[in-house]
Structures are given as structure tokens and as C-alpha cells.
Amino acid sequence: MLNRWSDTAASECMTAYGGQWGEDLALRTYTSRLIGGEKELVLHGGGNTSVKGSWLDIFGKPVPAIFIKASGHDLAHIEPGGHTALDLEYLTRLRLLAELSDVEMAGELLTHRMADRAAMPSIESLMHVFLPAKFIDHTHADAILALTNRPDGMSSVREALGAEVIVLEYVEPGFPLARRAVEALEASPGSKGIVLMKHGLVTWGATARESYDRTVELVSEAEQYILRNARHPLRSAGAAPSTSPASARERYRSIAPAIRGLLAIPSGNADRPHDRFILRPIITQETLDLIESERGREIVLTPPLTADHLIRTKTLPLWIDSDSAEDPQAFLERAAAAIRRYALEYTAYVARHQSGMAAGLDRFDPVPRVIVVPGIGVICAGQDVEEADIARDISAQTLAVKKTIAGMGAYEGLSEEQLFAMEYRALQHAKLPRREHLPLRRTVALVTGAAGAIGAGICQVLLEQGCHVAATDVQGDRLTAMVDGLKGVFGERVMGVRLDVTDPESVAGGFGAVSEAWGGVDLLIVNAGMAHVSTLAEMDPAAFQRLERVNVEGTLHLLAEAARHFKAQGTGGDIVLISTKNVFAPGAKFGAYSATKAAAHQLARIASLELAELDVRVNMVAPDAVFSHGEQKSGLWAEVGPDRMRARGLDEGGLEEYYRQRNLLKAKITATHVARAVLYFATRQTPTTGATIPVDGGLPDATPR
Question: Are 9 and 30 in contact (CB under 8 A)?
């Protein structure tokens, strides 16, 4: 492992934080980030670090304190305030107790924070308190777990790291482990680290650098030992080659929506009957080589490397046998049976151990979070893309470490009792982030014409409500710029896809790209459209046909693909067509647009009749005169505006004011207004399909209202 300490970077951290927080906590922050930046050491909030120092009380008197990473904080991005200050002198006295329950320990930690609003400190706080060193680092290093998670793990660790490292059998984290660790250190006072079997590594030092250097040193020694002792190839010399990622990815696209539908669980809400999951696949050659090897199933179907991963991945993945040449329907039937069986087995597992469940905890749903399919790869599930990505990252690291262990021999994880004790432990559940409840958190939307004003407004409002949004358009540069801006705010919940609605293959490819990224589509916003200004007498038939291909055929292609997609997914869906007031009140010299949009509107009404049996609701929003959304200008008004301004002798501002004054409410219609109407249908506020919401400020001629 590379030692990433930099005097320059450490000095920069000191400059940034030393004045307010002091040198020790500034350097504690620096090395915490070094550790958090190594996925081979910790993942997604795992591990913890601490430093002992002092805290000024209300009288200005320094009081002994320990600053320890707060539960759930991510070391890679931690700020000094992410280390909660605790009363060191008082908490040290807890070692005198013979027993301390989780409830009691949590109470002591909370009531002895130096700041009453500080975050809950780590479950491992007392181990950091009891161990005497100033700086302490605790990681779940891959190389260490590769040594510990074996039947001969203790002897392997001693052989790899030598007598200066203490090796402890698995002890439940918290008070029992804290006492056991300090007792072991007192028995071997010259030790430079502790290996916790099936758990991780603890190192310490008088300085932040010394503790960090020891982590790197011991992990490097473990890595070298593994290289010297890897003797068991996973694939025999004559084994058939495994599936290529390209073939696996193509197959995954075709089955992902159906798998996503099979994973959905009943919500108890008649209007939104399914709670769906977001899927994130691992499709790499290394993964396919492992799971398709002779020992693939034996290696993969084993408990997690560390109990720290349980709340993200459950105790075991689901394995579904697959033959890339078999009929897709036969595979999906087997997948459905396997998912049902997994749910029954998980429910039975909880029932076997529920007497040990902490009071007040809700059961996790029985749906697998990790599915392994030879010929396809590994599919990871979460309530949103952040959860799914955590499961994916943990799974990728887990597979790599288990492959390493298999190269040396057999794998041995924690027992079922030990796993349950950690999975249903209140202090573990406290690590799960408490997110604001957003109505579209588990929803995936595909928006066409997203680079225009209305499309951009719809994307933004959907994202604000937790949705995962695939913004699509033919205007590549404008789309890229818009998506980049949204990604800065909404991260991995937004993606850009170039999609030409006039090309059925492009439409199918767009749905496929979203299925590969997130598992499927639940909400389709048909927004792409074109306009043309001409009298009927002067109409160029070719211009009319261009509009017909986009506005009518494009709508047809989208509705047809959505119908096939929603049927395969089996959890219903929603389609919202961005119609126009011109369907009801057409304008002179606007015949091509009015006629083709009316045809699209009628197609959507027909879709509402045909797709209702699939619980797919199809509705329309009819706006008027939306000129822009932030930097995104309306393509329609770029086409129509010059003619309208000439006819009325107005500039751009005057034209906008003209349209505002002509509606009953004298309202300026914005893309956000249109998006809110879309949101009404997307969140299923009423059992409505085949309906139109006008968003026009009140135009008496644009009926029905």
C-alpha cells in the first residue's frame, strides 16, 4: 500500500483548520481523509479515527477530551467537526464496570458529549477511550480481512505480521471489545497494533503520522504475505472462457426491468402500490471470471467480510443460475422463484433470532440487496442510487477480497448468530442516514426534449422531489451543459442520454441505457417537439412532415416502447405528455404545430385506454407561452417568436408581456409551473388518467378546462 502522507498537504490542512480547531485535530482530519480515500481500507462511512486532547469548558478551563469520528460520517470527506468531543476522564471510568448494555453505553456517550448537539459518536468509542494512545486508527483493511476470514486466520495473521501485533478472536464491537482490547494491550505493552478477527485493524501512535504510517506498514505486510501464499487458481487450464462484459451488458439491459419488477415490494398504498428499487450492476471481466469459475458459487455465497457491511448488503447474496443461451422467459421464471425463496429464508432467519433483536427496531424488508447471475454479473439494489452504489462498492470490494482468500484456501465468515446480533443492533441502525422523505425517491423518469426550457424545468423539479432523471435530447452540447449543471447539485441521480424520438432504435436504446444505469423507467415525460410558422396556403409539405415525424411519430415511438417496458417491469407507471393550448385553441399560421400536437394528444388519450390494465396512467399538461428556464431558452419560441414580434411590433420583453396580459390571471407562465403540473400526475395525487391540466393562466378559448 502506498503511503500518501505529504508534508505540503498536511501543512495546508493545518493552515485551513489549525487556527480554529488546533494542530492535533487538524492533522487528525488530514490522516482521516487519507484513510477514507483508500477503498482498500474503508468504505462508505466505515472505520473510525480519534485523537485525545482537551476541550475548553464554559469557564475557559481545559478538560481532558477525546475527539472521535461520529457514527455514519465518511472519513474521505470528514471535517474537524465530524469528530465528536467526549469527556475522556469520565468515560475512562466505565472500564471499571463488569457489564454495560448498548442502551446504557449509548446513554453515557450521548450525555458526555462536550457539545449537546454534536453527532452520535462511533459504536467503537470506548475502545478508543480505553486504549491509551493519543491517535488511534481503526480500519477494515481488505488485506487484513483476507487473512482473518479463514479457518486458520489467527496463525496466518501472526505469520504475516509478527509478534508485535496482537490478534483477538472476534468480540462483539462496543463495550466487550473495548475491555478486551485494552486488557490485551496491557498484557503486551510493546505492541504496535491489534488485528480484530473478521473485523479489522487498530493502530496507534503519539502523532497522527505515526498512527497512519503503522496502518500502511501493517497492511503492506499483509499484502506481501498474500502474494507469497496465493497458490490456488480459480480456473483450470482447460476451462471455457467466461462471458464478455459486452455480451453480459446487453443481456442485463434486456432483463433489468423485469428483475426490478420482481424485487418491488407491496407498499400498502392503492395509488402507488409498489415500492421499487434502484439497481446498479457490476459487469466487469474480473467479476464474470470469478462468478463463472468452478468455485464461483462456493466463494460468493458466504457471509460478509465484516459485520459493518450487513446493513447495506444483508447476510448473503442471492445466486440465480443462468445460461446465456436459454430463453429469457425461462430465466425470469427461475429468478422470480429464487427471489420468493430468498424472502422466505430471510424471514425465517429473522424469526430464528428475533428474541435477540434490539427493542424498537423495524425489520428490514426481505428483498436481497445483492444478486449474482453468471453470464450477467452482480446486481445491487437500494432505495435510491446512493444506497445502491454503497451496496455495489461494498460488493465489488468483497468479491475481490474473497477471490484473494480463495487463492490461499477456504473462506470463513461470522456465524449466523453473530451476523444477526450486528444486523439488528440499534447502534448499527443509527449509522443509516435519516433522509428527508421525498415522494419520488424510488422513481426513475425519462424526459425527452430535456435541453429546452420546459424540459429543463421538469428535470429540475423532479430531481428536487428525489427522482432519478434521465434527461434526453438530440441537442448534444446543450444537453451536456444542462446535465453537468444538474449533476453539481443532484449527483448520480441525473444522467444525460442522446435520444432521437423519430428513430425507434434510438428510443429503445434510450430506455436500454436507463435500464442499465438504474434498472428501469417508471415515469415517461413526452416533451420533445418542433414548431413551424406558416399559413396553410404557403405550407411546405416537407416542413409539415418534419413536424409530423417529431411530434406524432416520435410520440408514437415513445408510447410504444414505454408500453413494452412497463409490461415487462410489471409495477405500473406514468406517462405525461406535454401538450399545448393549441390543441384546444389553435393559432393562425401555426397549423403544422397545432395539428401534429393534436394528433400526439389523441395518441396519449388512446394510450390511457390501452395501458390502464397495466396500472399505467397517461395524462397531459397543456402550457402556453413558456419562453425560458434560467439559461435554457425555448426552442419553440426561438422558431415562433420572431414572427410574433414582427406581427405585433414588439421586442422580446414586450412579447412576453403581451402573453402575460392575455390570460385571465395576468400570470407569467414558467417552466416550473409546467413541472408542478407534471409533478401532480407523477405523484399520483388522485386516481386520474386521460386528463389534461391547462397551465396557461386561464385562456377562455383553450377548452376544456
Answer: yes
- Supply the DSSP symbol for 436: -
Contact 599, 552 (CB under 8 A): yes
7-229 and 245-429: same fold?
Answer: yes
Half-sphere exposure for 382 (CA within 13 Å, toward CB): 24
The superfamily CATH assigns to domain 7-229 is Class II aldolase/adducin N-terminal domain (3.40.225.10)
Handedness of CA 189, 191, 196, 200 (dihedral sign): positive
List strand residue ranges (DSSP E) for 423-563, in order. 444-447, 468-473, 494-498, 523-526
Q: How far is CA 336 from CA 314, 342, 388, 411, in A?
A: 19, 10, 20, 29
Interior/surface letters 77-104, b for 16+ CB within 10 angstroms, e for the rest:
ebebbbbbbbbbeebeebeeeeebebee
Amino acid at 148: T
Choice among 122-136, 301-315, 496-510 with the minimum mean pLDDT: 301-315
Q: What is the pLDDT of residues 513-545, one digit of tens each?
A: 999 999 999 999 999 999 998 999 999 999 999
Query: Of all helices (H) and strands (E), which one includes residue 485?
Result: helix 476-490
Supply the pLDDT for residue 705. Answer: 54
Amino acid at 117: R
Q: Between these two residues, 612 and 651, which has the higher pLDDT value?
A: 612
- Domain boundaries 245-429, CATH class: alpha beta
Interatomic CA distance for residues 238 and 57, integer angstroms: 71
Q: Strand order in 318-319's β-sheet? A: 278-282, 377-382, 370-373, 318-319
Residue ranges of E strands in 494-598: 494-498, 523-526, 573-578
Instruction: List the chain domain ranges.
Output: 7-229, 245-429, 444-635+669-695
Q: The domain 444-635+669-695 belongs to what CATH superfamily? A: NAD(P)-binding Rossmann-like Domain (3.40.50.720)
Task: Please report how many Cα atoms fall inside a 13 Å half-sphere around the Cα of residue 111, on the Cβ side.
Answer: 8
Half-sphere exposure of 180 (CA within 13 A, CB side): 17
Closest CA to 529 of 659, 620, 673, 634: 634
With a CB cutoff of 8 Å and minimum separation 6, the contacts of 493 are 384, 385, 463, 466, 467, 468, 469
Number of Cβ within a 10 Å radius of residue 13: 21
228-232, 476-480, 669-673: lowest mean pLDDT where?
A: 228-232
For 332-385, write each residue's pLDDT tens digit: 999 999 999 999 999 999 999 988 787 788 889 999 999 999 999 999 999 999
pLDDT value for 631: 73
